[in-house]
Amino acid sequence: MEAEFINLIEDGGVKKRIIQEGQGEIPIDGSRCKILYKGTLDDGTIFDSSLDKERPYKFRIGKDELIKGFDIALKSMKVGEKSELKITSNYGYGNEGNSYKNVPKNANLTYEIELINYKQAKKKKWEMTSEEKHQEAINKRTKGTAFFKQQNYKEAQKIYKKALSYCTLTTEEGNELKASLQLNLSICYYQLEQYKDSIDYAKKALDLKTNQQQKLKALYRKALANIKMAELEEALADLREAFKIDSTNSAVIEELSRVKKLLKEARMKEKEIYSKLFQQKLYDESEIEPKEIEIKEAKSEGSSCCDPNEKIEEENQLKQKDDKKEVQIQEETCEEREKPKIDNNENNSKIVEESATPV
Q1: What would the pLDDT profile of 273-290 be if each residue is shown by its tens digit?
Q2: End-to-end distance of the chain based on CA atoms, in angstroms?
Q3: Does the global pTM surpass 0.85?
């Protein structure tokens, strides 16, 4: 027994009779539907059909892509459902008809339509409630994790960032979801060798002050990135904090041991370098000092005996001194020679007087 037609709107302009039952949810405004259909006029003339197409027709509800009767009917159908529709001209092509499809004015239409599947329309972010955004963030996190497992870290990172933009809940649950996404971003950036970004997202997760397990993960992620950046002291501090939270965590214990070993090796190497520099400094000074002394001594010797001009000048000075002495001797000799020429009578008393003076 065939099902009866039911009114989909109050004025009876769109009626539906189910030929084949479908299942699942029904689409809403904005949903993208894949359908098969055939349209006929009252006299049975086919004016439109998708059955002769290679692919199902894609129809978006609420965008006036075909006729209003389609929008109304599809919002009542389930996936797999096949129905017969009776649509008046008011919900069809109206009093103008459609010359391209040979539909006359004010024509009533009959359709057979099947809903193959549909993609649920998504609300815009600004249209969502905080709870809806929270759920969308969870959905995107799941999608991002699928890419992460495929080692597609770049794509996973993009999706985790989008998910993070939907985190608006300030409840404990909301903060834990936000911290979870930040930790996921931290490890994505670590795998992409962008260690500074990895540290930044780990810090953001720590700032949320969520549960101890997430705090431990954040400290561990931060420590791993710090090791890669050779910030061993920072890494050691992070791992010690993580160890306080869980002293049985094998990953933390292993990294703690490794960082201590790396620090010890770095300090020994640093000590060795300073020691070599100190020895090199002493060696250089011992080589330079004798050379300076040697140069000074050479300079001093050169000034006294190596410069021929200075030697000639010195000889000239000695010669001048000898000449002066010779002149002086000659003058004294002359004076002596001139003394006997003095009148004995005039100086007799004076000579007597000088002979009596004590020497």
Answers
A1: 777 676 665 555 544 444
A2: 178
A3: no
